[in-house]
Design a protein that fits this description.
CATH architecture of the largest domain in chain B: 3-Layer(aba) Sandwich
Structural class of chain A: mainly alpha
Largest interface: A-C, 85 and 93 residues
CATH architecture of the largest domain in chain A: Orthogonal Bundle
Number of strands of chain A: 0
Oligomer: heterotrimer
Shape of chain A: globular
Shape of chain B: elongated
Largest sheet of chain B: 6 strands, mixed
CATH class of the largest domain in chain A: Mainly Alpha
Structural class of chain B: alpha+beta
Radius of gyration of chain A: 25 Å
Distance between the termini of chain B: 34 Å
Chains: A mainly alpha (295), B alpha+beta (383), C mainly alpha (300)
Number of helices of chain B: 11
Order of helices and strands of chain A: HHHHHHHHHHHHHHH
Chain lengths: 295, 383, 300
């Protein structure tokens, strides 16, 4: 553990000093005359914190390939047995499908709802819009546990417990605030004159929105949809109450398993989730960069 | 592109309030078929609100709006068949130039080949041949302006609305585009309503100018009449540079400090009901009196003391303090002999204003006030 | 102008205006309905339930019990303790990191931000699990620590307050760093330059110029972290090993094991009240902070 930060800091300073020909350490690091040497403590500290942020999560990846019952690092023998176990356990597979289905359906429900609401709030210019906005972001302010037992209690009467419909509705409500905020921000930075001009050129309001406005706020809408997916996929507490056997989400099953014992299968699932997240993040970076270049 | 059949616009009693503020206060305005009419006023005067009412984006509280014989006040924007150019162009960045210009035609379900031909023709009209497949962000400000214009005229609207379309361009390009817009208007002939706060632009381009302030139409006239015979002190100060002197009406004749003023027949605008009037002194209309002038008798005279002088390149301006304390400016062309003849600071001079250029503005003496401050702010745009 | 002329079309236009606003506003209706049915009505129902005691009589028993019973008081104390300590840890770790990232050149900063964003986007459960693996009795930290001879017997890192705090600080850190980084990026470094030119040494330039300007971002981060901590459930449930009982966990037990909605609802209502109180106080404090900041800036 001791060598890692030094390695990181060394590698970074090494690369930079290559560019700045040796005397880099003695140069001012900022406009306040502090040299890089005087700031090495900061660099070391920042590197340590970044390690704290990244490494514990990533260390699960090699451990998931361990061949033994116990999680070790580095693993003494490598195998895919925990992946096999995951793929061949029908409970895990069902839970995975439930999670994916719920997340996709949540995206399909919440994205149009949030887009409509964001547009309505933005253009109607009513005083009441402020209060409606506050109403729409309440799911973010109320503690999730309270929502969970409330939904559970209500669903018991509505017979929605342990149904896909119930799960999707609950997740949609939870995902709405983030989705709404992101799309509203996109609308705010959009030039409404474009929609006006489209209307003066003969497009109805709906057509102008679909053909002109929507393509230009698409990054906000996609981001909102992505967030909705993550909110749903990652959600544990509400699912814990309102779903049960056969309708359990993957995160719920993982949570229940974690409470009992440390099942290495979870390391395998975690690895898959981490890889998906990383891929999505990298894709978003590339996507965003090319989008920036284009516009 | 072909010449377009124009439509007249009849605006009647259009009122729009925001809370207690009147953005438009019972505006009546007739825009003639095929004319280039400019709505001119300071920011917040209501000129843009009026344009938005014409386009259908602002719904007034009351009033009537007719394009030709058709009442359109309740018609949504997309049915009004009005071309519109916005200040910031509002081009669609996700479409290329041709798609931007062809957008109105596509909405009308016109055949692809037809659209292509008409886009080419529209591009030629705004002198952008070959720009069809450019992206919007590759265009300069002036080119964007032309694309916005081409998009607004391609569906041959009989009315064209423009909201300060040139304000984002630099001075040279702006002046160039003014001439081009005017040429285009002459070529196509659609009724055009143009909004600007730049009085020089208004004077350069318009058939008629409607001066608007505080949501009211103050004066509607052709540029020369607006400049030479402003209807009130506001117009006199907003357009061009002027100093207003209080004038008494004695026995039906205008007098300045007890001396009667010569006013050309038909140029006096004072009506008998107002107890006073204002005399408008514009810097370029004043001359240093020289008794050797053949027509010296045709000039009204004002005595004063020379203050400082400012050299401006093509002009030089001499500031004179009149006997009653008003400071007026005299603008002379920078020719060698006039520079040499300029009176030295501190000397007393007599200024002359030809009776044919003597304009009286109805209004109270109190309204005249000290107009120098307003004149200062307008100096940047003066003709 | 006559009064009649002033009112041409007025009634019809007013009707059109109302109709259009209503049409636009109705776009919010589906989303509002969702929130009302799924969130507001059930939570309101719970609030109603919390007003009835075990015998089904309307009373404040569920609330008075909270103040009388020591176990409930302890739960609230634990909740605040954990939230406070987690927030403090996040400030200690987050401020230097954000400060470091904010001064990096753009390309390097983007790379550094990945270290913040990757855990931010990774499933909370995955991260909690990872910490369990790292911190447990036979986990990596103990394994390496003992191999290196740093300590003899395995340290108790998981299944207690230590584990909870480490795990929660890790999960909350991005929530503090992101707004703080944004605030720091917005600081014009010319101020620092000016301070240096005026002869301020680096430490005092930081203290008098940079620190006050970064405070709003830090404050926003602190509020987000603290409020999220108050309602936390998953991480303390897994890493606390039953030794750290927070309000959310108590609510879960009450409903899951005892089906006691009345008491659980009362706890939830109090938790909601505390959350809103913190948000409200932050709102007030932030304005106060702005006033103080203005006074300070006027007298450098």
């Amino acid at each position: 553990m001791n060598t890692a930060p030094r390695y990181m800091a060394g590698r970074m300073s090494g690369r930079i000093s290559g560019r700045f020909s040796g005397s880099w350490l003695s140069r001012p690091a900022s406009d306040t005359q502090v040299t890089h040497r005087g700031r090495l403590w900061l660099y070391a500290l920042a590197a340590l914190i970044m390690i704290f942020l990244v490494v514990p999560t990533l260390i699960v990846i090699p451990m998931s390939f361990s061949g033994s019952q116990y999680l070790e690092f580095p693993p003494r023998d490598w195998s895919m047995r925990w992946y096999d176990n995951y793929l061949q356990t029908s409970e895990w597979m069902t839970a995975t499908w439930v999670s994916i289905k719920a997340a996709v359906l949540t995206v399909l429900v919440v994205t149009p709802l949030a887009t409509m609401a964001a547009y309505g709030l933005y253009v109607s210019q009513l005083k009441a819009a402020r209060y409606v906005f506050i109403l729409l972001i309440t799911p973010m302010m109320v503690p999730v546990i309270l929502i969970a037992i409330g939904v559970f209690f209500a669903y018991t009467r509505l017979r929605l417990n342990n149904t896909m419909l119930g799960l999707v509705l609950a997740h949609s409500a939870l995902a709405l605030p983030l989705c709404l905020i992101v799309i509203s921000a996109g609308l705010k930075s959009y030039d409404m004159n474009q929609e006006r001009v489209a209307r003066s050129l003969g497009a109805s309001r709906l057509r102008a929105f679909m053909v002109i406005t929507l393509p230009q706020i698409r990054f906000s809408v996609i981001t909102g949809a992505l967030l909705a997916f993550i909110v749903s996929f990652d959600e544990v507490i509400v699912a814990l109450f309102i779903t049960g056997s056969g309708m359990s989400t993957i995160t719920r099953s993982m949570f229940l398993a974690l409470r009992d014992q440390i099942d290495p299968t979870i390391a395998a699932i975690s690895t898959i989730l981490i890889l998906i997240t990383t891929a999505a993040l990298v894709a978003a970076q590339i996507f965003g960069r090319t989008a920036q270049k284009k516009s | 592109m072909q010449r377009i059949d124009a439509l007249p616009i009849h605006i009647r009693a259009v009122t729009k309030t925001y809370g207690a503020v009147y953005a438009l206060d019972g505006v009546d305005l007739e825009v003639r078929s095929g004319e280039f009419l400019t709505l001119l006023g300071p920011s917040g005067s209501g000129k843009t609100t009026l344009l938005m009412v014409l386009a259908g984006f602002t719904r007034p509280d009351a009033g009537s709006l007719k394009f030709g014989d058709a009442e359109v006040i309740r018609m949504p924007p997309h049915r009004r068949e009005v071309g519109m150019v916005f200040q910031n162009y509002a081009l669609f960045p996700h479409l290329d130039v041709a798609a931007n210009i062809g957008f109105p035609l596509k909405l009308r379900g016109i055949d692809k080949n037809d659209i292509h031909a008409r886009v080419e023709s529209a591009l030629a009209t705004v002198q952008l041949q070959g720009f069809g497949d450019r992206r919007i962000h590759q265009l300069s400000g002036g080119q964007k302006q032309r694309v916005a214009l081409a998009r607004a005229i391609i569906f041959e609207p009989r009315i064209l609305l423009m909201d300060e379309p040139l304000s984002a361009l630099d001075k040279k390009l702006r002046e160039h585009m003014q001439i081009e817009l005017r040429r285009l208007h002459e070529q196509l002939g659609m009724t055009t309503v143009y909004v600007t706060h730049d009085q020089r632009e208004a004077l350069t381009m318009s058939d008629r100018i409607a001066v608007i302030n505080h949501g009211r139409l103050i004066q509607l006239d052709d540029p020369r009449a607006i400049y030479d015979h402003p209807a009130d002190p506001f117009v006199a100060n907003f357009i061009g540079e002027s100093v207003l002197l209080p004038v008494e009406i004695i026995d039906g004749k205008p007098c300045y400090r007890g001396r009667p003023l010569q006013v050309a027949a038909g140029h006096a605008r004072d009506d008998k009901t107002t107890p006073g009037a204002l005399l408008m002194l514009r810097p370029e209309r004043l001359v240093f009196m020289d008794d050797a002038r053949a027509d010296a008798a045709a000039y009204n005279r004002f005595d004063g003391v020379v203050g400082h002088a400012v050299y401006q390149g093509e002009n030089f301006v001499t500031y004179i303090t009149l006997d009653d304390g008003h400071e007026v400016a005299v603008r002379s062309v920078s020719r060698k002999q006039s520079l040499a003849a300029a009176p030295p600071p501190g000397s007393t001079v007599t200024l002359g204003l030809h009776r044919d250029e003597t304009a009286l503005i109805p209004g109270h003496t109190a309204a005249a006030g000290n107009n120098n401050n307003d004149a200062e702010t307008n100096r940047g745009h003066k003709p | 102008m006559t009064a009649a002329a002033m009112d041409i079309n007025a009634a019809a236009l007013r009707r059109d205006e109302r109709r259009e606003k209503l049409a636009l506003f109705s776009l919010c209706a589906p989303a509002s309905l969702l929130v009302l049915v799924i969130i507001v009505a059930p939570v309101g129902w719970l609030f109603w339930l919390s007003l009835f005691n075990d015998a089904g009589v309307m009373s404040l028993d569920n609330y008075t019990r909270m103040f009388e019973s020591k176990s409930y008081t302890r739960i609230f104390i634990t909740t605040f303790q954990v939230s406070f300590l987690t927030t403090a840890l996040c400030v200690l770790l987050g401020y230097p990191l954000a400060y470091f990232l904010a001064q990096l050149p753009r390309r390097w900063a983007a790379l550094g931000m990945l270290a913040v964003l990757l855990p931010f986007w990774t499933s909370l459960l995955v991260r909690t699990y990872a910490w369990l693996v790292v911190l447990q009795r036979k986990g990596l930290v103990n394994q390496w620590g003992m191999e290196l001879g740093l300590w003899e017997a395995p340290l108790r890192l998981a299944h207690n307050l230590n584990g909870t705090l480490i795990g929660m600080a890790h999960i909350m850190l991005p929530f503090l760093v992101l707004p703080l980084y944004g605030a720091m990026k917005a600081i014009d470094f010319d101020y620092m330059k000016a301070a240096a030119n005026l002869g301020a040494n680096p430490v005092s330039a930081f203290r008098h110029v940079f620190l006050p300007l970064s405070l709003p971002g830090l404050f926003a981060g602190i509020i987000i972290v603290f409020v999220l901590c108050l309602g936390f459930f998953v991480t303390p449930a897994v890493l606390g090993g039953g030794k750290v009982i927070m309000v959310s966990m108590k609510i879960e037990t009450l409903v899951d094991l005892f089906f006691n909605f009345g008491t659980a609802s009362a706890l939830g209502v109090v938790l909601l009240g505390l959350t809103l109180l913190v948000l409200f106080a932050a709102h007030k404090l932030l304005q106060l902070d702005r006033v103080l900041g203005g006074g300070h800036g006027g007298n450098p």
